[in-house]
Amino acid sequence: MEFIRCPTDSWDAVQRTKDVSPQLNQATIIDLHPSSTYNIRMYAKNRIGKSEASNELTITTDEAAPDGPPIDVVLESLSSQCIRVTWKAPKKHLQNGLIRGYQIGYREYSTGGNYQFNIISMETTGDSELYTLDNLKKFTQYGVVVQACNRAGTGPSSQEIIATTLEDVPSRPPDNVQANAISPEAISLSWSMPPKEALNGILQGYRVIYWANLPDGELGEIRNVTTIQVTLELDGLEKFTNYSIQVLAFTRAGDGVRSEQIFTRTKEDVPGPPGGVKAAAASATIVVVSWLAPLKMNGIIWKYTIFCSHPYPTDSTFKWRVVTSESQASFGLLLSEL
Hints:
Elements: E1 2-6, E2 16-17, E3 37-41, E4 57-60, E5 71-77, E6 83-88, E7 101-108, E8 118-123, E9 128-133, E10 141-150, E11 153-154, E12 161-164, E13 175-183, E14 186-192, H1 196-199, E15 205-213, E16 223-227, E17 231-234, E18 242-251, E19 254-255, E20 262-265, E21 275-281, E22 287-292, E23 304-308, E24 321-325, E25 332-335
Antiparallel strand pairs: 1-2, 1-3, 3-4, 5-6, 6-9, 7-8, 7-10, 10-11, 10-12, 13-14, 14-17, 15-16, 15-18, 18-19, 18-20, 21-22, 22-25, 23-24
């Protein structure tokens, strides 16, 4: 018995033979290649010689699961939640049949972990294939393998390849934001880093956003300060002024979520001078003094003090006369006995 593989072999160049006992009327040929076509012919032999060849038989072996993995597997991170997987079919001689689909396995990658692969099946579309994994965790390493499938089964996995989804902005604000007024012009701030799983990237620093809430209901200029620390001192602030403060973390992808507003008032300081001070004589011994509240009160006004003296004192021991208005709402006073 002689047999060759079609169409690659020819009777003249390559052939394989198998001797069969004359008592048998059938034989089994082994070690053939799956999903391959063979031509078979037989001869009868005796002491004189070999007969002419029989008519050729053509037969195709059944498929077997692929013996080789897909090749040229490449991962490309498209976004913070998507990775594109591309590959090519296994080498032809290892396909063992018609490749009809693929299985893509992916998992969060951890050198010490034992995570099972999530499996996605897809039908083949050609020699070069691609699939996009989505809804992945942000800024997370994933391992990916690919297997080819035919009617007989699934072949071996490609080598696991690692890729990391892209960075994104933090999805949570810094924790435990606290503010404390330490002087009339300064506020001390502190906070904690957001949970690591909410950073979605490499932390680059923090941004503090703050503005004054003015007495007339208007908002002051919105300012921001960047720092890599979890504490900060805001200085150069307006005295005895209520400030709104927010803190956010940021990565290379941008600013994250702001914390809830907290409100802190700077400490009191001495007031500025009263404005519009006027004096008018009411009689030979009485003067009426009026004034306006200081432009910068810097706190709660409890009283006003008026100092008066003769412009040309004749007594070298003359001292200033001090009169106090105990009402914080008073903007005038009558000076008598002058």
